[in-house]
Design a protein that fits this description.
mainly alpha; 3 helices; 2 strands; 31% helix
């Protein structure tokens, strides 16, 4: 009597982006691009503000943590997620993130890479008290 056992081994590397620490690892390319475009518009910057770009080779290393701005962006993402989770939680009926009031990058940055820390103060010398 002869027994033959066949076993096949395959590796499965699910699709995903490298080095995502705040965003979901298996986020769709469309959703990731939408988020990155929102960040770009909110700060009025290009991809190279946070991501490593080799100008000589014209290649990008989006996973690289070489730029401090990317590390700061992660902290800002955690901060806004925390604020929104505490003050605008979905269980209070806030289920549509586009319709509810939330804190976003634009809330503070208003199209500036470095947000202005003071509003422009207009002093009217004729109306001093």
């Amino acid at each position: 009597m002869v027994f033959v056992i066949c076993v096949a081994f395959t590796t499965f590397d699910p699709p995903g982006f490298k080095n995502l620490k705040v965003l979901p690892r298996f986020i769709s390319e469309h959703d990731l691009d939408s988020i990155m475009h929102f960040y770009s518009a909110s700060l009025n910057v290009g991809c190279d503000f946070c991501h490593a770009h080799d100008k000589q080779k014209d290649t990008w290393d989006m996973a690289s943590d070489a730029k401090g701005e990317k590390l700061i962006a992660r902290k800002m993402m955690l901060m806004t997620n925390g604020i929104n989770g505490m003050y605008f939680p979905p269980e209070k009926g806030n289920t549509d993130p586009h319709a509810m009031q939330t804190v976003t990058c634009f809330t503070c940055h208003k199209g500036e890479a470095i947000p202005v820390d003071m509003p422009p103060l207009k002093i009217d010398s004729t109306n001093r008290k």
